[in-house]
Design goal:
The complex is a heterotrimer of chains A (about 200), B (about 290) and C (about 800). Chain A is about 35% helix and about 10% strand. Chain A contains 7 helices and 5 strands. In chain A, strands 2-1-5-3-4 form a 5-stranded mixed beta sheet, sandwiched between helices. In chain A, strand 3 and strand 4 form a beta hairpin. The N terminus of chain A is likely disordered. With about 290 residues, chain B is α+β, with helices and mostly antiparallel strands. In chain B, about 35% of the residues lie in helices and about 25% in strands. The longest helix of chain B has 21 residues. Chain C has about 800 residues and is of the alpha+beta class. The mean pLDDT of chain C is about 95. The relative contact order of chain C is 0.13. Classes of the chains: A alpha+beta (about 200), B alpha+beta (about 290), C alpha+beta (about 800). At the A-B interface, strand 4 and helix 5 of A face helix 2 and helix 6 of B.
């Protein structure tokens, strides 16, 4: 591969040609399309007729939506509601990053059709915050350093929340089991487990 | 990517059956969705023809657990979490509770249903070996008919059962089991959690002193589908549960499996290990 | 005497904890820009082929397609790479591995594009597929990159002393071959990037899950034919990287930027896990042949090492990864005579590059396994053989580097680990074992008929024979930072505010390891404030000097050094203000502590730090500074592989205790005691986190993880098949820090991230040897490896196949 000079006007011209831009001359002016509204872009191009109304209760608030049946709960939470704390990592029900509470139980939201959540109560990481006040689990994860990169953290905390709702004073084995559906590649497991035990102590 | 589909949420079993009856070819029941949704995402051939889903998860007439005179009735859409928690199942049918506890993770157990597990009929379905040794009978309903048949007959081959497109497995009946039966469930996975089974075994034994009065043996993940080993059971009945015989029985299990599967890529590992682990399982059951 | 610190070395909670526990942290795919389009890749299912034609007619006028980007759109470099430019941004003449991308469809609906991409018709001529690097080296092998002379990417040679004479003088010679697999980084966050075309002549702004923004900038600028300053890269919150979000992100950023400039609209690319595993690079698979000569007294006389690294389809970081291998291949053992060859080779496998460890986990597995075998052969314990040969102060490495001017702590970490675990007693006790591990492999080989799979009665293990305990250790030395790889310097920008709060930004990137917190501690320590007073800025290549990549466990050492330098510049300015203010002489000293500043010899005389900042601000003193930290010169003679390769080293020892189920081959890690010398611990919580993470990933390497390849195609494309450890898979991890003195880094703080990973698999393998009496040569030690000494792979590609 022959190297091209980065700064030569030749390559600059080729660049413009390559993009089929109408701009001539020595200044490479970027072509910028007028921006479309965000919501329009986020909406699916799919047939509206296939949409089904959905009353989705998330973090105590009811949203009136209209969604295609093939959309997962994770997609609707992230894209339609812009609650991006819930993460999609494997989209295969293997890693737990998309964990939310559905009627108080931990579920993989990538595994669930959004329409299935009609009439149920969904809690995401954003719903744990009580106003300004951190939830005891959130406090514990900070205090015990149950975080590294933080990408799996919302799912970890939601799995922990489901665990503590059912079993407020879990033994370490219960926590290991209850958290084992949530992968953490940073390997923060010992501190995640400690965080959950700490929250159980203070809760 | 999930294809464009329709979604029907019936209010009860009857509505679900009616929906199925109307669109036989392209409709499919979804319960927990733990097989179907990931299957869609990887464009699995098994789910390509689906155009409509009927969601039966949480339907009250499919989520009961009732102890009756003829045994324990478990609704088809009962989740593994509910099975793990159920005191009657833990007490009377502990192998099923143990197997349920080893399914995936909490999140999967909260969604995955017992009938979904064997209707999907993956070779590694964890609930199948315990259900088989408990002689589970299943009730299948459609708008046309209602029938019951042994689970063993219902399972045909990997990912294939007798279920017709318009039918739903509405319940599983576990016949009463005499207190003298003792059992064990064993699962081998590559990891300790969220593990697909490499081998599962379930054994129920009724001993009179050291004599095997009755024995029921089932496995999963080592044969194309989970199955009972009747010939082995017949061979064992009346024998003494001593070490030498238990080894003989274990070898026979290996031979049976080999006969069924022929040589597979995993045989070099699974065959010796299944014999070994079956032997250890028998030792535990018989020595307790 | 160690310096007394007020914050350094204590547990400090993460500065970015709040946004991470609330779900507010913005990772790349959490960012959406009005008008954004998506990019979806077009690939063909082939490992090696000549592209004959590409027909876009079925999609080019489709309403869902806003643009199609391909090699023809590239104004600048069509091929990129950190060392050799051999990787096309879009393939145009050949495809050399299944992850290769021919074009990208751009449009508003990602879903639509995913359906449409199959309509692009690519005509190609399949070429012979090379998956074995040893075969790829043969002279008649087809060339993967026809513009190169051979499939050899690089060949590092190290020649020290006279190995032939060394072997001739040895009482014994041991020769063994080990292999390690490809490994997926498996960062939890899949790749995502969004490129936004900027107004007028401002170029392009890119935000993404990018490990090394300055490297990305170089690549994007080259591809676009832009000056560097016209490409601004901002790092989104990064969901794990471990060396993995380098090349792949550079290329994805270049594709997104091309599309953004072509369409005039923001373009986002986000990968699904399957795309991620398919296209992203891996840790190298290695083939390692070791020949070691040693005497009855345990002294090693000579080592001859031949390593072949599978570089996969592109060279990426292979020349540097394998360079670290050649430097460290003997392990931390004094050896007069060494002859090492390390070759990196092109194949049609997935390409390989940087991953945590960077060329060390592979040789450590081999070298530490062999050291144990030597000990066993001589009737010694593993710690004894390492005491005899291990580096001491003044020892000379295989590269001829005399170890001095830092604490050569190898034997200290070894003794600490051995004492803590009661190693020798346990090891000796486990060596006296009962019934051997069943050898099903031998059964199988007797004949092709399946009968051998059926056990004989005396093959059966009894219940009390199933579980075996084992203990094993591994030690290493590791060169810190980049060494002779290249320029090694880092910038840090620190800006004090009138009220005593501060902005801090380093040119290195937060990868999730806790670097922001570490740097905040360093700045706070110098200025006597709290890390809570330090607000860390988002990394943007426009705002701070090029500091190279965040790799090689250099963040604390180099970036910490730069941060300390910046803080000291500001402290000195504040001291000058105070001398004038208090009328003190030029040589007056001060104590900065607890947000107060004291005259050194008069603690009564004090001023609040905030007040001092206000004073300085009002005197028009510049309260912003850029700290710079450059590593000392290193030297390398590549013809013989001699020279002081790195300016300082760290040492570690891990002891693994395992339980092996010899009936099934399951290995459970009961405990890992990890003793490391990171120089100085800056944040105890962060340091522990590094150990937990390194050991967990190292255990994954040892026991489960493997990217297996079938004719170039990866079998494990998601986490149902690529198994990483869960919270239940590893027992206790015990981090122990032995701190040393070093002249480099902030107060002598060095490296920790990679040393914690590189030892674990080797320690586990030695523990399994101790438990079973059998040596294993091929990672990972999964169920089949333990019982059959080989891997078994499904013949069907269906997932979940039993």
């Amino acid at each position: 591969m022959k190297k091209k000079s980065v700064s030569s006007s030749l390559s600059r011209r080729q660049f413009l040609k390559g993009f089929g831009s109408g701009v001539a001359g020595s200044v490479a002016l970027n072509k910028i399309a007028s921006a479309l509204p965000l919501q329009k872009t986020l909406e699916k191009a799919a047939n509206d007729a296939n949409r089904t109304p959905l009353n989705l209760s998330v973090n105590g608030k009811t949203y009136r939506l209209s969604v295609e049946p093939n959309r997962t709960l994770a997609e609707v939470i992230r894209e339609d509601l812009q609650l991006t704390g819930t993460k999609v990592v494997c989209n295969h029900g293997e890693c737990g990053a998309c964990t939310v509470l559905l009627d108080g139980e931990a579920v993989y939201s990538c595994h669930i059709l959004a329409l299935d959540a009609e009439g149920k109560s969904v809690t995401t990481i954003e719903g744990l915050l009580g106003g300004e006040e951190l939830h005891p689990l959130q406090k514990a994860f900070v205090k015990k350093d149950g975080i590294q990169c933080g990408f799996c953290t919302p799912g970890q905390i939601m799995a922990a929340q489901a665990l503590l709702l059912k079993n407020p004073r879990p033994a370490k084995e219960d926590v290991l089991e209850g958290m084992s559906g949530n992968l953490c590649r940073c390997g923060a497991y010992p501190k995640i487990i400690e965080s959950v035990l700490e929250a159980a102590k203070t809760d | 990517m999930i294809p464009e589909i329709g979604y029907i949420r019936p209010r009860n079993l009857r509505e679900a059956l009616e929906a199925l009856g109307e669109n036989r070819e392209t409709i499919r029941v979804i319960a927990g969705g733990t097989d179907i949704i990931p299957g869609f995402h990887i464009n699995s051939r098994r789910f390509r023809d689906i155009r409509t889903l009927v969601d039966i998860s949480g339907l009250p007439d499919l989520t009961f657990v009732d102890l009756e005179n003829d045994g324990l009735h478990i609704g088809g859409a009962v989740t593994f979490t509910d099975i793990v928690k159920n005191p009657i199942i833990r007490e009377e049918y502990p192998l099923l509770a143990q197997a349920a506890f080893r399914v995936g993770s909490v999140q999967i157990r909260n969604r995955a249903t017992i009938a979904g597990n064997f209707v999907n009929n993956a070779p590694c379905a964890d609930s199948v070996p315990p259900l088989l040794v408990y002689d589970a009978v299943i009730k299948i309903q459609s708008t046309r008919s209602e029938k019951t048949l042994p689970l063993e007959d219902f399972l045909l081959k990997p990912y294939k059962t007798q279920l017709q497109p318009d039918e739903i497995v509405s319940e599983i009946v576990l016949p009463p089991l005499k207190k003298e039966y003792r059992g064990e469930f064993y699962k081998l996975g590559r990891r300790r959690s969220v593990a697909i089974s490499r081998i599962t075994l379930a054994v129920l034994v009724k001993l009179q002193d050291r004599t095997i009065e009755d024995i029921r043996i089932a496995s999963g993940a080592v044969t194309p589908i989970g199955r009972r080993f009747r010939e082995l059971e017949d061979l064992a009945k009346g024998e003494t549960a001593e070490v030498d015989f238990l080894k003989e029985l274990s070898v026979k299990l290996g031979e049976e499996i080999l006969k069924i599967t022929g040589l597979r890529w995993s045989s070099a590992y699974k065959l010796p290990v299944v014999q070994q682990m079956f032997y250890l399982l028998l030792r535990r059951v018989c020595n307790r | 005497m160690r310096k007394k610190f007020s914050i350094v070395g204590k547990p400090v909670v993460r500065r970015d904890g709040l946004e991470k526990v609330t779900g507010q942290a913005k990772f790349a795919d959490d960012i959406n820009v009005p008008g954004q389009l998506y990019g979806v890749m077009v690939r063909i299912p082939v490992s090696h082929a000549k592209i004959l034609s590409v027909d876009y007619s079925a999609v080019e006028n489709h309403p869902a397609v806003a643009a199609i980007c391909h090699a023809g759109d590239i104004p600048g470099a069509k091929k990129v790479g950190p060392i050799k430019q051999d990787q096309p941004v879009f393939c145009y003449d050949k495809v050399v591995t299944p992850g290769d991308v021919i074009a990208m469809l751009v449009g508003e609906s990602e879903e639509e594009l995913l359906k449409l991409r199959d309509l692009v018709k690519v005509e190609y001529e399949p070429l012979p597929v090379l998956t074995d690097p040893l075969k790829a080296l043969k002279s008649d092998a087809p060339l993967i990159h026809p513009d190169q002379k051979s499939n050899l990417i690089v060949h590092h040679r190290l020649r020290k002393g006279d190995v032939d004479a060394g072997f001739a003088e040895s009482d014994y010679i041991l020769e063994q071959t080990y292999t390690t697999p490809f490994i997926e980084h498996a960062y939890i966050e899949p790749e995502a990037v969004i490129a936004v075309p900027r107004e007028g002549d401002k170029g392009v702004h890119i935000t993404g899950s990018i490990q090394n923004p300055f490297t990305t900038r170089k690549i994007v600028a080259k591809v676009l034919g832009f000056p560097l300053a016209k490409v601004r890269i901002q790092q989104a919150e990064l969901g794990g990287s471990f060396g993995g979000k380098d090349d792949i992100m550079n290329i994805l950023s270049a594709r997104a930027a091309l599309a953004a400039l072509k369409t005039g609209r923001p373009v986002k690319i986000r990968y699904r896990r399957e795309d991620s595993i398919l296209e992203s690079y891996k840790r190298h698979a290695y083939h390692l042949h070791y020949k070691v000569g040693f005497n009855k007294d345990g002294k090693i006389k000579a080592m001859k090492i031949d390593v072949v690294a599978d570089g996969g389809a592109y060279s990426s970081m292979t020349p540097f990864v394998t360079w670290r291998t050649v430097v460290q291949a003997t392990g931390p053992y004094e050896t007069e005579n060494v002859w090492t060859d390390v070759r990196g080779v092109y194949t049609n496998n997935p390409y390989t590059g940087a991953m945590r460890g960077f060329g060390s986990p592979q040789p450590i597995f081999a070298q530490e396994s062999i050291m144990d075998e030597i000990a066993i052969q001589l009737g010694m314990t593993p710690d004894e053989i390492r005491r005899i040969n291990g580096f001491k102060p003044g020892s000379v490495t295989a590269t001829g580097h005399k170890l001095e001017n830092h604490d050569v702590n190898l034997l200290t970490v070894l003794e600490t680990a051995v004492t803590k675990t009661g190693f020798s007693e346990k090891w000796k006790k486990n060596q006296r074992r009962g019934k051997m591990l069943p050898d099903y492999a031998a059964l199988e080989e007797i004949s092709a008929n399946p009968g051998p799979f059926i056990l004989h009665k005396d093959d059966f293990l009894e219940p009390d024979e199933v579980y075996r305990k084992g203990i094993g250790l591994a030690v290493s030395f590791r060169g810190c930072s980049l060494g002779a790889e290249g320029v090694d310097a880092v910038a840090a920008y620190l800006s004090l505010q009138q009220d005593g709060s501060a902005y801090l930004l380093s040119g290195l990137a937060e990868n999730g390891q806790g670097m922001r917190t570490t740097y905040s501690i360093v700045a706070a320590e110098v200025l006597g404030i709290s890390p809570d007073d330090v607000f860390y800025l988002d990394l943007d290549t426009g705002y701070v000097g090029d500091s190279g990549p965040t790799v090689a466990s250099r963040a604390t050492l180099m970036g910490g050094g730069a941060t300390r330098a910046a803080a000291e510049i500001l402290r000195s300015r504040l001291e000058n203000v105070l001398r004038q203010h208090w009328n003190l002489p030029e040589n007056a000293c001060f104590v900065f502590r607890d947000r107060q500043v004291y005259a050194e010899n008069n603690p009564e005389r004090k001023i609040a730090f905030a007040e001092l900042c206000d004073l300085a601000y009002n005197q028009a003193v510049n309260l912003a500074a850029i700290g710079w930290y450059a590593g000392p010169k290193v030297h390398w003679d590549e013809t013989v592989g001699q020279g002081p390769a790195y300016f300082t080293y760290v040492y570690g020892c891990q002891v693994a205790e395992v339980t092996v189920n010899i009936a099934t081959g399951e290995v459970y890690v009961d405990r890992v005691v990890a003793v490391h010398d990171p120089g100085t611990v800056i944040n105890l919580l962060g340091a522990q986190g590094q150990v937990y993470g390194g050991v967990t990933q190292g255990a994954g390497y040892g026991l489960w993880e493997e990217i297996s390849v079938d004719k170039g195609f990866i079998r494990e494309l998601n986490f149902d098949q690529y198994l990483i450890p869960t919270s239940k898979d590893i027992g206790e991890i015990v981090p122990i820090f032995v701190e040393g003195e070093d002249q480099y880094g902030p107060w002598g703080a060095k490296s920790l991230g990679e040393p914690t990973l590189e030892l674990t698999a080797a320690a586990i393998a030695n523990a399994v040897r101790n438990a079973t009496g059998k040596r294993f040569f091929h990672l990972p030690l999964n169920l089949e490896e333990i019982l059959l000494s080989k891997k078994l792979h499904p013949t069907s590609k269906n997932r979940g196949s039993a």
